[in-house]
Amino acid sequence: MVDEYSLPRVFIAIFIFGLLVTGCEKDTAGNTVKVLADNPDIEWPLHGRDESEQRFSPLTKINDKNVMDLGLEWSYQMGTYRGLEATPIVVGGRMYVSGNWGVVHALDAASGEKLWTFNPEVPGHWGRYGCCDVVNRGVAVWQDKVFVASFDGRLFALDINTGKPLWEVDTIGKQSPYTITGAPRVVKGRVLIGNGGAEYGVRGYISAYDAQDGALVWRFYTVPGDPSLPFEQPELRMAAETWSGTEWWKIGAGGTVWDSMTYDADNDLLYFGVGNGSPWPRAIRSPGGGDNLFLSSIVAVRPDTGEYVWHYQTTPGDSLDFTATQHMILADMTLKGEVRKVLMQAPKNGFFYVLDRITGELLSAEKYVAVNWADHIDVDTGRPVKTKSYGAESEIVLPSPAGGHNWQPMAYSPETNLVYIPTRDLTGLFALSSEWIETGSLTHKPGWWNIGLDWKAFTDLAESTDLDTLPISHGYLKAWDPVAQKAIWSFQHSNAWNGGVLATAGNLVFQGAGDGIFRAHQADTGDILWSANIMTGMIAPPVTYSIDGEQYIAILAGWGGSAISAGDARTSAAAKYGNYGRLLTFKLGGSKPLPVLPERNLPVEVVEPREFEEEDIRAGALVYMEHCSVCHGSVAVSSGVLPDLRKMSAGVRSQFKKIVLEGQREALGMPNFSDLLSEKDVGNVYQYLLYRAQKLSIEQLKGPDSEVAL
User: Fold this and answer.
1) Complete domains list, the chain, with CATH
2) For 464-497, what is each residue's pLDDT tens digit?
3) pTM for this structure?
4) Would the N or C end of the chain have less CB density within 10 A of its end CB?
5) How far, in Å, CA of 240 to CA of 534, rounded?
6) 440 CB-contact burial (10 Å; exposed 0-12 / middle 13-18 / buried 19+)
7) Selected catalytic residue, list 50, 259, 264, 321
C-alpha cells in the first residue's frame, strides 16, 4: 500500500485535443495504424470533438434504448491520487492522454494497451504556484505531432509515434508563478496556449506558436502594462483608459487565459476567455474605478496575426473572481425568426450569455443559478445592473468565487437544442483586505496568493462553523434552453463538484460525479437510464468514439483540482474510498468487473490529551487558512484528495518542520514554504493541527450519550 503522503510525482491521465492525420502510419511495434481522416464523426479529434466545441457526437449505436447494456471494456491505471481533468482525444484508433504536471500517455483506444509515455519532468516545487492543483486538461494532435503544455509553462511538440520531443519552448520566460493547466489548440498551423497565475500576481496573455518549429508568431496581452512604455498592441491603449488610480502593472493585474478557446472557421475568428483581476477587488488594483479591460471578457481575434476584432465583457470591473474563461460553444440558432451565428457561455457570474459571434453583440443573458451581485443584464447596453458595490463592507456573494459554472465543459445537442451545464449553488464571502482598509496598501507576497481579501474573516467564519450542521452544497446537471433562456430539466447531485458533459445523437447525456457515480441521462427528459458506481469521483468530461463498428464511452476518474470545501468530504467518493486515478472505457456488452474499493478508515493517532492556548490556536488557524487550506481543506478537513493533516503519522509529525520549511517532500509536490513562513508560523500551524486531531479523536471516541467535550 502506498502511503497517502507519498503522492506519486508522475501523474498519467486523459485525452486531449487534436486534428486528423491523413494516410496510414506505423505504431512503435511496427503495426499499421489506421487514421480515419474521411470519417471524423466516429472519433474525438479535437478538444470539444469539433471546432464548435459542442461536445456532441453523432454516434447512435449506444442510445436511449440500449444504454442499460453498457459495461466496462477496459481500464487503465493513472498512477495518481490527484485531480484528473483532461478530455480524451481519439485519433487513428489511438488515445492521447495527459495527466498531472503534463505527463502524456498514448494508448490503443480499443484495448487500452499503452503505446508510449512522455514526462516533462516538472520540478516538484512548482506545485505551490497552482491555485487548483497540478492538473492538465489535455493535448492537441495535428499532423504527425502531439502538443502538450507542462505545468511549469513549457510547450512541447511530441512525435506522434514515439512520444519523443521534437521541439520545446518556454512560454513564460521561466517566470514563476505562471502555470499552465489548459489544453492547447491548433488553428491554421498555429499552436495556441495561455497560462494561469492571476491569484499570484501575473499579467495574462495568449500566445501562438508555429506548429512546425515552435517559433512565436504572435502574442496578445489581455491587460495593459506600464502605460509609460509603448503598448505591445494598439487595443491596449483603449484598455488602459479603463484602469486608474494605482500602479496596477506592478502587481500583475491578472487576466490570464487559462482555459477556453474556440475557432470559428466560417468567419476566421478565434475566441478566447479572459480570467479575473490580480488582486481580486477593483478597489485595490484600480481604486479610481473603470471596467479594467480585458478582465472577465470574451475576446475575438484573427488567428493568423492575433489582430483584435471585438470583445464582450461579462463582468465589468470584476471584484469577485468571476472569470470568463469557461467553456464556449458555437452554434447556428433561430432567434426571433432569424438564424443567427451565436457563441454561448455560462461564465462564473451566474448568467447564461448568447452573443452574435461575428460582432460580439449581446443577444440575451439570463440567470442560470441563484445570483445576488446583479439584478439583470441590460440587453441594450450589454452591462449588468449591479445590486452591490463590493467595497469595504463584507458581503455574502451568490454565486461564490467558485462560480455557478466553472471550467467543467458543458455540451450542446443540435437535436434537442439544449445546452447541458454542470452547475453548482455555492455561497461565497467577500471581505476586502483589512491591510488595504487600514493602510491603503497591500503587501505583495511573491509566489503566494495576492488576492486582496481578508484571510482573518475567512478563518473566523470557518472556525465558527459547525460542519455537522452545515447544509450540504449541491451541484446540478441542467438542461438549458438557450432560446427561451430557461431550464427544461435539472438533476441534483449529492456533491457540488462534478464532471463535464457529453451529449450524443443517441438521445443521451453522460456525466460523472464527485460521489463516484457515472450516469447516462435521457437527453430530452433527464431520466437516468444507466449508472455505474466507479467508487472514484469524476470531474473530467467523457467522450465517445467508434472503432470497427463498436462505440465506446471513456472517462477519467480522479476527483480534485480545486479548493474543495470541507463540507464536500461528507459526500465525496475520495473521502470514502480514496482517489485512485483511472481511465475507464465502456461499450455495449462490456463484461469487465468494476473495481470494488474498500472504505477508507484512516485512524487518528491519539496523542497525550493536552490543553491548548487559544491564542496559539487562532494564530495557527489563520496561517493554515491562508497557506494550507487550498490543498488540505478548511478547518483541516481534507476532501479526500490530498492528505488529511489531522491524521498525520508519528513519522510525519516528527518531520513536520522539515517538510514545510526544508522541502523534504518537494519532489512529491509538497512545496517548500521557507520564504513565506517562519518557524513560529509553522509551530503554530502544527499546534493547530494537533488541536484539530485531538478534537476529531474525541468526537470519534465519544458515544451518543457521552459527556466528553473539549
Assistant:
1) 14-328+408-464+475-588 (2.140.10.10), 614-701 (1.10.760.10)
2) 877 666 666 889 999 999 999 999 999 999 989 9
3) 0.92
4) N
5) 50
6) exposed
7) 321
